[in-house]
Design goal:
The chain contains 3 helices and 6 strands; from the N terminus they run E-E-E-E-H-E-H-E-H. With about 140 residues, it is an alpha/beta fold. The protein has a single domain, classed as Leucine Aminopeptidase, subunit E, domain 1, CATH 3.40.220.10. The chain has a 6-stranded mixed β-sheet. Strand 5, helix 2 and strand 6 form a beta-alpha-beta unit. Helix 1 packs across helix 2 and helix 2 crosses helix 3.
Length: about 140
């Protein structure tokens, strides 16, 4: 599985599924899938994302990222788009989000079945550069 970084709007991404954050608990802690509707993606995978102040917020974000990637595998899709799901209203910095989410994707590469690409779709130059730097550090 390739890990790619792209500076774009997640809604314009040509992937099989995109991940969307949710503030609400999902059914049994699993990621919930809905159709992509008018989006280019066939599926939207909703995951519960913690706020930065919650107990074990990093572990919960790690679990949400893992659940999204595993759900993409269950759907047997070849590509999934992941935004920095815990930034913005959830309070994580881009740096913290990158340091939590990227290792999950890197770890999954060796277990990937159908998933060929995990595309981190990042909003703005600064967020892209942070993810690029952190990914570079982790690949060393």
């Amino acid at each position: 599985m390739d890990i790619q970084l792209l500076r774009a709007d997640i809604n314009s991404l040509k992937v099989d599924a995109i991940v969307a954050p949710s503030e609400h608990s999902q059914e049994g802690g699993r990621a919930v899938v809905v159709t992509g509707g008018n989006l280019l993606a066939r599926f939207i995978i909703h995951v519960r994302v913690p706020t930065e102040a919650e107990d074990d917020a990093d572990a919960k974000l790690q679990s949400a990222t893992r659940a999204a990637i595993e759900r993409a595998e269950e759907l047997a899709v070849a590509s999934v788009g992941l935004p920095a799901i815990a930034t913005g209203p959830f309070g994580f910095t881009s740096e913290r989000c990158a340091r939590v989410m990227l290792p999950v994707a890197l770890d999954h590469r060796h277990r990937a079945r159908s998933l060929q690409r995990a595309v981190f779709c990042l909003f703005g130059r600064e967020e892209y550069e942070i993810f690029e730097r952190v990914l570079g550090e982790m690949k060393r």
